[in-house]
């Protein structure tokens, strides 16, 4: 046994009585005495009652265990004294790399103990202290530890009581620490002063790649200071992800424009609900965006004052010669109408790499259907479109379906929920989906399609082999097995149902360890999934709204199991269980060859840039070039011959790729 997950869950009554009470302690003891256990999770994210864990016994076991690498204690009632015991074990343990203490009442003194242990521990890579009640004193002690700790790379301090003083101490440590890559302070009270300190430190840091300052009550002057520091950052600044959502940016977005233009490392920027309006400052941001070659993910959601005029300003810098590198764009709830979507077309057309577009919660009306179809047609690589709650009505949904009918689309995911499209609108859309044949996610709930749509689903499933289910209504989710049960007899899939797929992450978030028990989406979603999925027997309806969101590394709660979701939306295998990263055996073989199905799948998805499920000859050549040939290489003609034999001469699928790889290795 290399991985142990213990969950009480809804099926607790089916367990023998001896499992109640101290059952978790017995399992923990088993894990701590095992010489092969590498991950121990005692999390209980779905139930209202946290897990009871004897932390003292756990700490004693940790001092004697040499195999554990990850310990997850999310919502395990770890108090101050318990945290002190775990800290003592941490100070002598030289193997644990991940410690999750989220949602535990550790308090300031517990945080102090953990911080003190970090001075001695040089193996811990990730520490989750979110929702633990730590304040400025604990933050200052953590900062002091970071000055001498050379191992910690990820520090999560979300939803605590840290203010300007604690943020200042952390900023001082950041400027001198060379290992910390990820710092999250979401939902604290650092205000403008603390944000200014952290912005200056991030601009000088050579290591920090992710900074989350969302929901900290930062005013416009404070945001101006942060963005000004980053706009004039040192050339060695490594920051790739900046989250300032739910603060007040306002006219400081003009400085964000300068940041986008000057900070070449920046890949992801979240400006959700930051008080943006149609203004000259937004126009400057639009011009910087049109010329950016580095920014990949941008969220402007929940800024209703942007409106149609603001969208016109965003596309103002777009010309036939400018090519933006955006791959993810969220303009949900920005007060747009059909005219605003028409203005967005020019910006989208200037983003040839765009994979995901969200325009939900904009009242575009019936004329917006044609505009949505046009957005799909001008985006050659668009994989996911989110257009829920857009007020399309029957006429709008019919126009959307009619526009898609004659357009060449690359969509593999579509949510068009809550548009009151009626049976007629849904009936016109489903044949288009069936004919497309590449769909992997479809949500048409909230359109009153009802039982009339049910009869069209067999064609949809037959022609889309990778489509696991279709959401017709909020509590009616149809899959291949129950599609013939009759509309009134369809039950909501349980927690074992495939989860909504996630869009491809354009930046490298590999190597991050997720917190257990919830989907760890990127900053564009934050902790919303964690909150929504808790307490749900089937979290599927709650997660539908988060489909198509960018992902770093996702492990989602699945009752007594965990399932990892791949970062590629177009992957047909996202609903299959795979081993946790910590439990995967590392294969050492001559030449570093890929020897497992998972390794081959990851390589195939990496090379499948457009997500269509096929590789062409040029992409296969990259694989061959990376192999060790020991002085003997195939000629280009021989390589083309092998590709032609494996596929149709122009492209190959995954199974053909595996066979071809074996031939290339032997060659």
Keywords:
disordered N terminus; 22 strands; 667 residues; 18-stranded mixed sheet; two-stranded antiparallel ribbon; 11% strand; alpha/beta
Written account of the structure:
With 667 residues, this protein is an alpha/beta fold. It has 23 helices and 22 strands. The strands form three sheets. It has an 18-stranded mixed β-sheet. A two-stranded antiparallel sheet has the order 19-20. It has a two-stranded antiparallel sheet with strand order 21-22. Strand 19 and strand 20 (561-565) form a beta hairpin. The model is unreliable at 1-24, 502-536, 551-592 and 628-632 (pLDDT under 50).
Q: Would you kindly provide a brief summary of this structure?
A:
This protein has 23 helices and 22 strands. It is of the alpha/beta class and 667 residues long.
Question: Which SSEs are present, and which pair or pack?
Answer:
Blueprint: E1 3-5, H1 23-33, E2 39-41, H2 55-64, E3 70-72, H3 80-92, E4 98-100, H4 107-120, E5 126-128, H5 136-146, E6 154-156, H6 164-174, E7 182-184, H7 191-204, E8 210-212, H8 220-231, E9 241-243, H9 253-262, E10 268-270, H10 280-291, E11 297-299, H11 307-314, E12 328-330, H12 338-349, E13 356-358, H13 368-377, E14 384-386, H14 393-405, E15 413-415, H15 422-436, E16 441-443, H16 450-454, H17 457-463, E17 469-473, E18 476-479, H18 528-533, H19 540-544, E19 554-558, E20 561-565, H20 597-607, E21 615-616, H21 617-626, H22 636-646, E22 651-652, H23 654-666
Parallel strand pairs: 1-2, 2-3, 3-4, 4-5, 5-6, 6-7, 7-8, 8-9, 9-10, 10-11, 11-12, 12-13, 13-14, 14-15, 15-16, 16-17
Antiparallel strand pairs: 17-18, 19-20, 21-22
Helix pairs in contact: 1-2, 2-3, 3-4, 4-5, 5-6, 6-7, 7-8, 8-9, 9-10, 10-11, 11-12, 12-13, 13-14, 14-15, 15-17
